[in-house]
Amino acid sequence: xxxxxxxxxxxxxxxxxxxxxxxxxxxxxxxxxxxxxxxxxxxxxxxxxxxxxxxxxxxxxxxxxxxxxxxxxxxxxxxxxxxxxxxxxxxxxxxxxxxxxxxxxxxxxxxxxxxxxxxxxxxxxxxxxxxxxxxxxxxxxxxxxxxxxxxxxxxxxxxxxxxxxxxxxxxxxxxxxxxxxxxxxxxxxxxxxxxxxxxxxxxxxxxxxxxxxxxxxxxxxxxxxxxxxxxxxxxxxxxxxxxxxxxxxxxxxxxxxxxxxxxxxxxxxxxxxxxxxxxxxxxxxxxxxxxxxxxxxxxxxxxxxxxxxxxxxxxxxxxxxxxxxxxxxxxxxxxxxxxxxxxxxxxxxxxxxxxxxxxxxxxxxxxxxxxxxxxxxxxxxx
Length: 382
Hints:
Blueprint: E1 9-17, H1 21-32, E2 38-42, E3 58-59, H2 66-80, E4 92-93, E5 97-101, H3 106-110, H4 113-118, E6 124-126, H5 128-134, E7 145-149, E8 153-155, H6 157-170, E9 174-177, E10 183-187, E11 190-196, E12 199-208, H7 214-221, E13 229-239, E14 251-254, E15 259-264, E16 267-271, E17 276-277, H8 287-300, E18 311-319, E19 326-329, E20 336-340, H9 346-362
Helix pairs in contact: 1-6, 1-9, 2-9
């Protein structure tokens, strides 16, 4: 009797669950290291349906979390100057980032500049006049000082994702769209593969790059109970005033008002920087959240507040409790490898995190970064 397709068993060295930025970057760096018997399983029928395709697509290395800041600094050179032939178009448009601070926070922020320089992040200190000259709509009373990071800016996420995947495929990595991991196969206290409607995919290592669904996948397998929490983030695009050219502006991050904005064509993209806990889903933006953001914008850039919105959308950013990525083999479930908790910085850190994860899978160690800072073992019971 012929065996049906759904009963098929597929053998691979590595199975990666999720073809978002985490999964495809790992596939690329594994292939670069010579590991090509790899399959990416993606529940959707195309790339970038969820978080990777719904971000603001920016590189902003300045981060209050020192671990994330270092990862962004280490990932930036790849985005600014990728390997020859990697991409068909440039990955990074360095429009710059200006982080604006009020009187309550500016003195402490100003003192961090030497420490930032020590990790390779050179910033330019702006006084209020210089910040307003850079972004004329800023309200003087909201600006005690600012930090400018000239090399940061917009990332072409589609180009980055498709380039990672194209090169991985050219080296033999397989990608199966429309194939959902329904259950992990655990035998003798080791993860041995993934069950899907298209059959069973067995491997020596299963990588959980499931984004907002990563925590649920780990819990179902009996891995270390890491409470990964998806949080909604909203973005809107609106027209700028007709007499206000915005094309040359940087991304502007407003610390006290908890929002950022940047040029989007002749218009403006704004995020309220909301973090609303949600179960894994296809989130929708909140009108109340957008309206509250516009009220906060009146404090820092009143001329920009629009009457109508051209486009609005939302995505999920998933965080570990300490807000640092989770990368490494699970200490309780051998054969199960976490690549999760990107928390909104998965795109800009993918060049370094993908390499760190590939090193750990291929060699068991890495010299690129202190992997203990990312390890799932930090959540294991002592």
